[in-house]
Design brief:
Catalyzes the attachment of glycine to tRNA(Gly). GO terms for molecular function: ATP binding; bis(5'-nucleosyl)-tetraphosphatase (asymmetrical) activity; glycine-tRNA ligase activity. Homodimer. The chain is α+β, with helices and mostly antiparallel strands. It folds into three domains: 270 residues, Bira Bifunctional Protein, Domain 2 (BirA Bifunctional Protein, domain 2); 80 residues, Herpes Virus-1; 109 residues, Anticodon-binding domain (Rossmann fold). The protein is built from 17 helices and 23 strands. The strands form seven sheets. Strands 3-9-10-16-13-12-11 form a seven-stranded mixed β-sheet, with helices on both faces. Strand 12 and strand 13 form a beta hairpin. Helix 2 crosses helix 12 and helix 5 packs antiparallel against helix 6. The protein is globular. It starts with a helix and ends with a helix.
Length: 501
């Protein structure tokens, strides 16, 4: 199927609309206290971001939900918190020192640097958006084969053959493709001459592998069992872009599930379906989620897939599920000379377990949830049609659960509203506000995704009832003050999500 000029124009218009949507989300994130550029007063630092008052709450809620999902729903999954600094031989054993690379290419006219594989993947996305999925799949398959065979010159030829131009210069005047190691290194030791090179960890998984036997013995776990961890990781990305989607400092939420050799594919399928179900349970539409199986497998894997979400810039990876075989434990056993075997009493046999991994970026999850929740809809306001903007967040993960408003700032209403606020604030993250008209206060809470607003009026003083406004529908419900804790608690509890899993 050939792409017509009209399809190409439609694709360009679609890409422009997607970029505009992302710009709106980025602007909203900064304006309403979710994400700021780091060190902004010094003009910022590329691909590094800070989370604001509401962003840090939302991110914490997502991490807490993931942690509880892993450790509460699965009696055979426990957590750890391993150090960022590890012995440098850890990264030799894992293969990161020798092969943790991305293919790098420069445009000679713009002097801009790109990841060669991303250039080709973006081209494939253009084909798919134009309706030519067959051509897109063929291009990705060819790229995977070339990278697997490390035929870097052929990757360059593919870029030129596909007429992939630099977005800045518009030319295809490319350098050769070379591999670029992504690890940050630093020195440990008080005196530079006596110090030795160590690395900022590029992933959290290795902290789990080197502690495999420690955790297995002290937590009294039997195969199959998992170890979960949330922590910072660092990668010197060639091109960090698309807001917080790709950063140099980020957080991972990983679970390594240890299984008998030969049973890894059964558990691989189990965790694929389990994790997809989790994303749907937090409010992501099924049509915006998909699996994408890897054409090129990592050196440690015998099967791998990504859960992808349809961001404003297209389908991109949020979570990876990998069957890592026994590669990691075997490598650490060989280099450390310490046995990392498990004695399975049920089959009376010693073996090195196989591993199935689920790995999700907390920042990518945050961006996915923010993108999905960002809602603009037209509403009738008298004779005018206005655009209403709000964050349609699941109440369980919303940064603020409820806001309390006195109708006016006098006649005992603020005192009553503060009494309600003080009674609930230790159970829920709450906001009290009394400034400006109550309509404007509702709008402010909509913009940060607060699911419930509690209005205190003169009737409250008479019968101890309040009006609870729902964010998504703007419908209002009258209820006794004494019912608020149970009502809000039920709606914002993690159990509303966990019970679906």
């Amino acid at each position: 199927m050939n792409i017509t000029i009209f399809e190409a124009m439609a694709t360009k218009d679609k890409n422009k609309a997607e970029n505009n949507e992302l710009k709106k989300i980025i602007a909203h994130a900064k304006e309403y206290g979710f994400v700021y550029p780091s060190s902004e007063i010094y003009d910022g630092l590329q691909a590094v971001y800070d989370y604001g008052a509401y962003g840090s709450e939302l991110k914490k809620n997502l991490k807490d939900l993931w942690w509880q999902t892993m450790t509460k729903l699965n009696q055979n999954v426990v957590g750890i918190d391993a150090a960022i600094f590890m012995h440098p031989l850890t990264w030799k054993a894992s293969g990161h020192v020798d092969s943790f690379t991305d293919p790098l290419i420069d445009n000679k006219d713009s002097n801009k640097r790109y990841r060669a594989d991303v250039l080709v993947e973006d081209k494939a996305a253009e084909y798919e958006n134009a309706g030519d999925k067959e051509r897109a799949d063929a291009l990705l398959k060819k790229l995977g084969q070339l990278l697997e065979a490390e035929e870097l010159e052929a990757v360059r030829e593919l870029i030129i053959e596909e007429e992939i131009a630099c977005p800045i210069s518009g030319t295809t005047n490319w350098t050769e493709v070379r591999q670029f190691n992504l690890m940050f290194d630093t020195q440990v030791g008080a005196v530079a001459e006596d110090s030795s090179k160590i690395y900022l960890r590029p992933e959290t998984a290795q902290g789990i592998f080197v502690n495999f036997l420690n955790v297995q013995k002290t937590a009294r776990q039997k195969i199959p069992f998992g170890i979960a961890q949330i922590g910072k990781a660092f990668r010197n990305e060639i091109v960090a872009r698309q807001f917080i989607f790709r950063m140099r400092e980020f957080e991972q939420m990983e679970m390594q599930f240890f299984v008998r050799p030969g049973e890894e594919m059964k558990w691989y399928e189990h965790w694929k379906e389990t994790r997809l179900k989790w994303h749907k349970a937090i409010g992501l539409p099924a049509e915006d989620l998909r699996f994408h199986d890897h054409e090129k497998l990592a050196h440690y894997a015998n099967a791998a897939t990504d859960i992808e979400y349809k961001f404003p810039f297209g389908f991109k990876e949020v979570e990876g599920i990998h069957s890592r075989t026994d590669f990691d434990l075997t490598q650490h056993q060989e280099l450390s000379k310490k046995k990392l075997q498990y004695f399975d009493t049920e089959i009376n046999k010693n073996y090195i377990p196989y591993v199935v991994e689920t790995s999700i970026g907390a920042d990518r999850l945050f961006l996915m949830v923010l993108s999905n929740s960002f809602t603009e809809e037209e509403v009738q306001d008298g004779e005018k049609v206005k655009t209403r903007t709000y964050l349609k967040l699941h109440p369980a993960i919303a940064p603020v659960k409820a806001a309390v408003f006195p109708l006016i700032k006098k006649n005992g209403l603020p005192e009553k509203a503060k009494e309600i606020f003080d009674d609930l604030r230790y159970d829920f993250n709450m906001i009290y506000e009394e400034n400006q008209a109550i309509g404007k206060r509702y709008v402010r809470q909509d913009l940060i995704g607060t699911p419930f607003c509690i209005a205190v009026d003169f009737q409250t003083l008479e019968d101890n009832t309040v009006t609870v406004r729902h964010r998504d529908t703007t419908e209002q419900l009258r209820m006794p003050i004494s019912d608020l804790r149970a009502y809000i608690g039920k709606e914002v509890s993690f159990s509303t999500i966990l019970n679906q899993l």
